[in-house]
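Changelog note: in this version the structure field was regenerated for every chain. One regenerated record is shown below for reference.
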Amino acid sequence: MTIEPYVFSFSELDDLRQCPYKHQLRWTERWTPPTASPAQERGTRWHQLMATFYGHRIGPDRVGPRTAAVRTIDEHLSDSSDETELLYWMFEGYVEHWGHNRDWIVRAVEFQMTVPLFHSIHLKVRSDLIVRLRDDPKKRLWLVDSKTSSRLANQLELALHVQFPLYTWALRRAGIPIWGTIYDNVRTQRNKVTPQALEDRFARTLVHYNDDQLEAIAQDAWKDMAQTRTLVRPSSETTPPEQPRHFDPERCRYRCPFTEACIAGVRGGDTRRFLKDLGFRRDPTRH
Protein backbone atom coordinates (compact mmCIF):
# COMPACT_ATOMS: atom_id res chain seq x y z
CA MET A 1 0.00 0.00 0.00
CA THR A 2 1.39 3.36 -1.07
CA ILE A 3 1.05 6.13 1.50
CA GLU A 4 0.51 9.58 0.03
CA PRO A 5 3.19 11.97 1.31
CA TYR A 6 2.10 14.65 3.75
CA VAL A 7 3.73 17.89 2.57
CA PHE A 8 3.94 20.64 5.16
CA SER A 9 5.42 24.10 5.42
CA PHE A 10 7.19 25.63 8.36
CA SER A 11 4.18 27.94 8.78
CA GLU A 12 2.02 24.89 9.47
CA LEU A 13 4.56 23.46 11.89
CA ASP A 14 4.82 26.80 13.68
CA ASP A 15 1.03 27.07 14.02
CA LEU A 16 0.82 23.52 15.40
CA ARG A 17 3.47 24.31 17.99
CA GLN A 18 1.73 27.53 18.99
CA CYS A 19 -1.72 26.02 19.41
CA PRO A 20 -3.39 22.81 18.12
CA TYR A 21 -6.70 24.67 17.82
CA LYS A 22 -5.13 27.36 15.62
CA HIS A 23 -3.67 24.58 13.47
CA GLN A 24 -7.10 22.96 13.21
CA LEU A 25 -8.82 26.14 12.06
CA ARG A 26 -6.14 27.20 9.61
CA TRP A 27 -4.79 23.93 8.21
CA THR A 28 -7.37 21.22 8.83
CA GLU A 29 -10.53 23.26 8.23
CA ARG A 30 -8.82 25.81 5.92
CA TRP A 31 -10.29 28.99 7.36
CA THR A 32 -8.74 32.04 5.69
CA PRO A 33 -9.03 35.63 7.01
CA PRO A 34 -10.54 38.27 4.71
CA THR A 35 -7.39 40.39 4.78
CA ALA A 36 -3.79 40.01 5.85
CA SER A 37 -2.48 42.00 8.81
CA PRO A 38 -0.50 45.20 8.08
CA ALA A 39 2.69 43.50 9.27
CA GLN A 40 2.07 40.53 6.95
CA GLU A 41 1.36 42.84 4.01
CA ARG A 42 4.54 44.81 4.71
CA GLY A 43 6.61 41.64 4.97
CA THR A 44 5.17 40.33 1.70
CA ARG A 45 5.93 43.57 -0.12
CA TRP A 46 9.47 43.63 1.27
CA HIS A 47 10.07 40.11 0.00
CA GLN A 48 8.83 41.24 -3.42
CA LEU A 49 11.28 44.15 -3.34
CA MET A 50 14.18 41.86 -2.51
CA ALA A 51 13.19 39.32 -5.17
CA THR A 52 12.95 42.02 -7.83
CA PHE A 53 16.17 43.78 -6.82
CA TYR A 54 18.29 40.63 -6.75
CA GLY A 55 16.42 39.14 -9.70
CA HIS A 56 17.55 42.04 -11.85
CA ARG A 57 21.10 41.54 -10.59
CA ILE A 58 21.34 37.91 -11.74
CA GLY A 59 18.70 37.88 -14.49
CA PRO A 60 19.39 37.57 -18.21
CA ASP A 61 20.24 41.26 -18.50
CA ARG A 62 22.41 41.27 -15.31
CA VAL A 63 22.11 44.99 -14.69
CA GLY A 64 24.22 46.83 -12.14
CA PRO A 65 23.02 47.61 -8.62
CA ARG A 66 21.96 51.19 -9.34
CA THR A 67 19.86 50.19 -12.33
CA ALA A 68 18.40 47.26 -10.38
CA ALA A 69 17.41 49.62 -7.55
CA VAL A 70 15.77 52.09 -9.94
CA ARG A 71 13.83 49.34 -11.68
CA THR A 72 12.70 47.90 -8.33
CA ILE A 73 11.39 51.28 -7.21
CA ASP A 74 9.58 51.79 -10.53
CA GLU A 75 7.94 48.36 -10.32
CA HIS A 76 6.87 48.35 -6.67
CA LEU A 77 7.02 51.82 -5.13
CA SER A 78 5.26 54.09 -7.62
CA ASP A 79 2.17 55.03 -5.56
CA SER A 80 2.11 57.65 -2.82
CA SER A 81 0.55 55.77 0.11
CA ASP A 82 1.98 55.98 3.63
CA GLU A 83 2.91 52.30 3.48
CA THR A 84 4.75 52.75 0.20
CA GLU A 85 6.60 55.75 1.61
CA LEU A 86 7.76 53.62 4.55
CA LEU A 87 8.91 50.83 2.23
CA TYR A 88 10.77 53.36 0.07
CA TRP A 89 12.59 54.62 3.17
CA MET A 90 13.48 51.04 4.10
CA PHE A 91 14.67 50.09 0.61
CA GLU A 92 16.63 53.28 0.00
CA GLY A 93 18.45 52.83 3.32
CA TYR A 94 19.06 49.14 2.59
CA VAL A 95 20.74 49.85 -0.74
CA GLU A 96 22.80 52.69 0.74
CA HIS A 97 23.90 50.72 3.83
CA TRP A 98 24.95 47.51 2.13
CA GLY A 99 26.85 49.15 -0.72
CA HIS A 100 24.65 47.49 -3.35
CA ASN A 101 25.61 44.12 -1.85
CA ARG A 102 28.99 43.64 -3.46
CA ASP A 103 29.91 41.18 -0.66
CA TRP A 104 27.38 38.62 -1.91
CA ILE A 105 27.44 36.43 -4.98
CA VAL A 106 23.78 35.52 -5.49
CA ARG A 107 23.18 31.96 -6.65
CA ALA A 108 19.36 31.75 -6.50
CA VAL A 109 16.40 34.07 -5.93
CA GLU A 110 13.13 32.86 -4.35
CA PHE A 111 14.40 29.30 -4.10
CA GLN A 112 11.74 26.61 -3.55
CA MET A 113 11.98 22.85 -3.15
CA THR A 114 10.06 19.98 -1.53
CA VAL A 115 12.28 17.56 0.40
CA PRO A 116 11.40 14.23 2.09
CA LEU A 117 11.93 14.65 5.81
CA PHE A 118 11.27 11.20 7.29
CA HIS A 119 9.10 8.40 5.95
CA SER A 120 6.02 9.99 4.34
CA ILE A 121 6.54 13.48 5.80
CA HIS A 122 7.84 16.03 3.29
CA LEU A 123 8.91 19.63 3.91
CA LYS A 124 8.40 22.64 1.63
CA VAL A 125 11.58 24.72 1.67
CA ARG A 126 11.52 28.37 0.67
CA SER A 127 14.34 30.90 0.86
CA ASP A 128 14.58 34.47 -0.38
CA LEU A 129 18.12 33.96 -1.64
CA ILE A 130 20.98 31.51 -1.77
CA VAL A 131 24.32 33.31 -1.74
CA ARG A 132 27.99 32.80 -1.13
CA LEU A 133 30.33 35.36 0.34
CA ARG A 134 32.71 36.84 -2.19
CA ASP A 135 35.75 36.62 0.12
CA ASP A 136 35.09 33.01 1.23
CA PRO A 137 37.72 30.73 -0.36
CA LYS A 138 35.60 27.67 0.46
CA LYS A 139 32.66 29.09 -1.56
CA ARG A 140 30.12 27.96 1.04
CA LEU A 141 26.42 28.50 0.37
CA TRP A 142 24.11 30.39 2.70
CA LEU A 143 20.33 30.69 2.87
CA VAL A 144 19.14 34.27 3.29
CA ASP A 145 16.07 35.14 5.35
CA SER A 146 14.85 38.71 4.77
CA LYS A 147 13.24 39.79 8.03
CA THR A 148 11.19 42.93 8.70
CA SER A 149 10.46 43.92 12.29
CA SER A 150 9.95 46.97 14.47
CA ARG A 151 13.33 46.30 16.07
CA LEU A 152 16.36 44.26 15.12
CA ALA A 153 16.35 40.67 16.40
CA ASN A 154 18.93 39.74 19.01
CA GLN A 155 21.11 36.62 19.09
CA LEU A 156 18.83 34.71 21.49
CA GLU A 157 15.76 35.30 19.31
CA LEU A 158 17.61 34.04 16.27
CA ALA A 159 18.81 30.97 18.16
CA LEU A 160 15.16 30.10 18.88
CA HIS A 161 14.23 30.59 15.23
CA VAL A 162 14.60 27.03 13.91
CA GLN A 163 12.97 27.45 10.49
CA PHE A 164 16.16 27.92 8.51
CA PRO A 165 18.24 25.35 10.40
CA LEU A 166 15.47 22.90 9.46
CA TYR A 167 15.75 24.04 5.84
CA THR A 168 19.53 23.62 6.02
CA TRP A 169 19.14 20.04 7.24
CA ALA A 170 16.60 19.26 4.50
CA LEU A 171 18.65 20.75 1.67
CA ARG A 172 21.81 18.97 2.81
CA ARG A 173 19.76 15.77 2.73
CA ALA A 174 18.80 16.64 -0.86
CA GLY A 175 22.46 17.11 -1.81
CA ILE A 176 22.64 20.92 -1.66
CA PRO A 177 25.55 21.85 0.68
CA ILE A 178 24.07 24.75 2.61
CA TRP A 179 26.43 25.94 5.33
CA GLY A 180 24.09 28.18 7.35
CA THR A 181 21.71 31.12 7.40
CA ILE A 182 22.15 34.86 6.98
CA TYR A 183 19.38 36.77 8.73
CA ASP A 184 19.02 39.98 6.73
CA ASN A 185 17.07 42.11 9.20
CA VAL A 186 15.55 45.54 8.51
CA ARG A 187 13.69 47.75 10.94
CA THR A 188 10.25 49.02 10.00
CA GLN A 189 10.00 51.59 12.80
CA ARG A 190 10.80 55.08 11.61
CA ASN A 191 11.49 57.72 14.26
CA LYS A 192 9.49 60.90 13.80
CA VAL A 193 12.00 63.25 15.43
CA THR A 194 15.52 61.79 15.59
CA PRO A 195 16.59 59.89 12.45
CA GLN A 196 18.17 56.49 13.06
CA ALA A 197 21.69 55.73 11.88
CA LEU A 198 21.87 53.09 9.16
CA GLU A 199 23.65 50.64 11.47
CA ASP A 200 20.66 50.89 13.84
CA ARG A 201 18.22 50.05 11.05
CA PHE A 202 19.91 47.09 9.36
CA ALA A 203 21.73 44.00 10.58
CA ARG A 204 23.03 40.79 9.05
CA THR A 205 23.67 37.84 11.34
CA LEU A 206 25.35 34.64 10.16
CA VAL A 207 24.26 31.48 11.98
CA HIS A 208 25.76 28.00 11.57
CA TYR A 209 24.65 24.73 13.25
CA ASN A 210 26.63 21.50 13.38
CA ASP A 211 25.22 18.19 12.11
CA ASP A 212 24.06 16.97 15.53
CA GLN A 213 22.17 20.19 16.18
CA LEU A 214 20.48 20.05 12.77
CA GLU A 215 19.51 16.41 13.28
CA ALA A 216 17.88 17.23 16.63
CA ILE A 217 15.88 20.08 15.06
CA ALA A 218 14.74 17.81 12.22
CA GLN A 219 13.72 14.99 14.58
CA ASP A 220 11.64 17.43 16.65
CA ALA A 221 9.89 18.69 13.52
CA TRP A 222 9.11 15.18 12.32
CA LYS A 223 7.68 14.13 15.69
CA ASP A 224 5.39 17.16 15.77
CA MET A 225 4.22 16.84 12.18
CA ALA A 226 3.74 13.07 12.31
CA GLN A 227 0.74 13.55 14.59
CA THR A 228 -1.07 15.57 11.91
CA ARG A 229 -1.48 12.43 9.80
CA THR A 230 -4.07 11.27 12.32
CA LEU A 231 -6.13 14.46 12.02
CA VAL A 232 -9.34 14.29 10.00
CA ARG A 233 -9.25 16.14 6.68
CA PRO A 234 -12.90 17.21 6.55
CA SER A 235 -15.10 18.12 3.64
CA SER A 236 -16.45 21.66 3.47
CA GLU A 237 -19.57 20.50 5.32
CA THR A 238 -17.97 18.68 8.24
CA THR A 239 -16.09 19.70 11.36
CA PRO A 240 -13.38 17.50 12.88
CA PRO A 241 -13.03 16.78 16.61
CA GLU A 242 -12.02 19.87 18.57
CA GLN A 243 -8.32 20.22 19.30
CA PRO A 244 -7.11 21.77 22.58
CA ARG A 245 -6.59 25.49 22.86
CA HIS A 246 -3.22 26.72 24.13
CA PHE A 247 -3.99 30.15 25.52
CA ASP A 248 -1.08 32.55 25.70
CA PRO A 249 -1.68 36.33 25.93
CA GLU A 250 1.32 37.22 23.76
CA ARG A 251 0.74 34.74 20.97
CA CYS A 252 -3.05 34.98 21.00
CA ARG A 253 -2.99 38.75 20.82
CA TYR A 254 -0.31 39.26 18.19
CA ARG A 255 0.11 36.01 16.30
CA CYS A 256 -3.35 34.56 15.73
CA PRO A 257 -6.13 35.80 13.43
CA PHE A 258 -8.66 33.52 15.18
CA THR A 259 -8.45 35.00 18.68
CA GLU A 260 -11.87 36.71 18.73
CA ALA A 261 -13.67 33.65 17.36
CA CYS A 262 -11.78 31.36 19.73
CA ILE A 263 -12.81 33.44 22.75
CA ALA A 264 -16.42 33.51 21.50
CA GLY A 265 -16.37 29.70 21.33
CA VAL A 266 -15.04 29.39 24.89
CA ARG A 267 -17.87 31.64 26.08
CA GLY A 268 -20.50 29.42 24.54
CA GLY A 269 -20.76 30.93 21.09
CA ASP A 270 -20.37 29.26 17.71
CA THR A 271 -16.75 29.72 16.62
CA ARG A 272 -17.39 28.91 12.95
CA ARG A 273 -20.41 31.19 12.67
CA PHE A 274 -18.37 33.94 14.30
CA LEU A 275 -15.62 33.39 11.72
CA LYS A 276 -18.15 33.70 8.90
CA ASP A 277 -19.53 36.91 10.39
CA LEU A 278 -15.98 38.33 10.45
CA GLY A 279 -15.54 37.54 6.76
CA PHE A 280 -13.46 34.37 7.04
CA ARG A 281 -14.01 31.68 4.42
CA ARG A 282 -12.98 28.07 3.95
CA ASP A 283 -10.48 27.55 1.17
CA PRO A 284 -9.94 23.85 0.34
CA THR A 285 -6.77 24.53 -1.66
CA ARG A 286 -3.44 23.83 0.00
CA HIS A 287 -1.84 26.96 1.45
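Spot check on this record: The radius of gyration is 21 Å. Residues 29 and 238 are 9 Å apart (CA to CA).
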